[in-house]
Specification:
Length: 433
């Protein structure tokens, strides 16, 4: 009887792709993949350490995994596992800690995830056949397929622990990306999310400049049905060529997420971000002008050490003049080993919460305006789940709006053309063409 294994993911889209890779490995080692709340013999938590909250959530998942699966082997992998160090004693529920380096180690290396799983499974040599990325994502409950094109980051932002946890930029060979995309499409994938830690650096480790648009164009040539979505792209990597590529190809989603962090130049400089507010404005304005219907998101951090009330006010005013359609807002939290961890965290927790709340109000206003502009338009929606019992489907449009429309469960996983006729509870509501 095959042993049961489930994977829980904390964090970003790159972690989603990593979790799919874990599933591929586990199936090759003979495990049956199950989903929560089903009991399992092995529970893997793919962790995150980008904030204090991510650390806490990673530990919480491990403790819950032990409570709900008392006889299981609990494995914590990912960025928190890499950086936890002395904190490991806080989580005795974990049987194996597998950092990002050990996770990618050769399967024969002691302590690697592959070696641990092989020992648990007791199945001997692994099956050489691997699932496609799409098949692995389906086992995780994802309808979109996450394909990691690079890992690591060459930036040195003062607050960010990710380069310490993930290392420097490493691009996946183009041929491997193409082969995996073709396999995913052959298995029924309709949307491919190109993800990583810093996808705009794709190819830079091989001295290639502005290589992301070329990769997208080749993916379009080698596939026929997949639509392609980009995950977060830094401002400096949104080039005229990338904008032209997105605008000129209907299979490339009209959606960009461009980290901002602050609209105050003084704060950006202290964060060691490689741009200033005027450069950010020029980039996102060019993108919005060049790509009709573009959904444009931004990360914003509040309460960075030394951020005054005046500095925060500059960020609020800056955001009001941008073509941004939604925000991801989070409070600063010191990360061990980073430059900012040596600074005095002089913005109180109460004030950080106030600033988060203020920007969430801006986010709500932006989202509402963006959705209202789409009433009367026709959008392409990847159906991801049922809604209202089994009378409707819900999914994401190319420009990342959530859309509800009449349909049956058999339509899940397909792309539907939908005429939008209303906005309700933060979602577009429409009728399929």
């Amino acid at each position: 009887m095959r042993k049961r294994l489930k994977v829980l993911t904390v964090g970003c889209k790159a972690n989603f792709a990593d979790s799919a890779s874990v599933v591929r490995l586990a199936v090759a080692e003979g495990f049956e993949i199950v989903s929560p709340p089903s009991p399992a013999d092995v529970v893997i938590i793919n962790s995150c350490t980008v904030t204090h909250r991510a650390d806490r959530d990673s530990r919480s998942h491990a403790r819950r995994a032990r409570r709900e699966n008392p006889g299981a082997t609990v494995i914590l992998t990912g960025c928190y596992a890499q950086m936890a160090g002395a904190e490991r004693e806080k989580v005795p529920e974990v049987d194996h800690w597998v950092g990002t380096g050990a996770r990618e180690a050769p399967e024969t290396e002691e302590g690697s995830l592959a070696a641990i799983l092989r020992e648990i499974s007791g199945n001997g040599p692994r099956d050489a056949a691997l699932l496609s990325d799409h098949a692995a994502d389906l086992l995780l409950g994802h309808r979109r397929t996450y394909l990691k094109i690079q890992d690591g980051c060459d930036y040195s932002c003062a607050y960010c622990v990710v380069p310490l946890a993930r290392g420097r930029n490493r691009s996946v060979p183009e041929g491997e990306i193409i082969a995996r995309a073709v396999d995913a499409e052959g298995d029924g994938a309709r949307e491919l999310v190109l993800t990583g830690i810093h996808i705009g650096l794709y190819g830079a480790d091989d001295a290639k400049k502005d290589a992301l648009p070329g990769l997208v164009m080749r993916l379009l040539r080698e596939t026929s049905r997949l639509r392609i979505r980009l995950s977060s792209v830094e401002p400096g990597e949104i080039t005229a060529r990338l904008i032209e590529t997105m605008a000129g190809n209907p299979r490339v989603c009209d959606h960009l997420h461009v980290p901002l962090q602050s609209g105050c130049d003084r704060t950006l400089a202290r964060m060691r971000r490689p741009y200033r507010s005027v450069e950010y404005r020029e980039v996102v304005s060019s993108a919005a002008a060049g790509i009709p219907g573009l959904s444009l998101g931004a990360d914003v951090m509040v309460g960075f050490p030394g951020e005054t009330t005046k500095d925060f006010g500059e960020t609020v005013r800056f955001l009001r003049d941008l073509p941004v359609t939604y925000l991801h807002v989070f409070p600063y939290s010191a990360r061990p080993g980073t430059e900012s961890a040596r600074l005095h965290d002089d913005v109180s927790s109460t004030e950080k919460k106030r600033r988060v709340s203020r920007l969430l109000s801006e986010d709500s206003r932006m989202r509402d305006l963006f959705l209202l502009r789409q009433v009367g338009t026709t959008v392409d929606v990847l159906a991801e789940a049922v809604s209202r019992g089994e009378e409707a489907l819900v999914g994401r449009s190319g420009n990342y709006a959530e859309v509800v429309f009449p349909g049956s469960p058999s339509g899940i996983g397909e792309i539907h053309r939908v005429v939008v006729d209303a906005v309700h509870d933060g979602k577009l509501v429409g009728i399929p063409v």
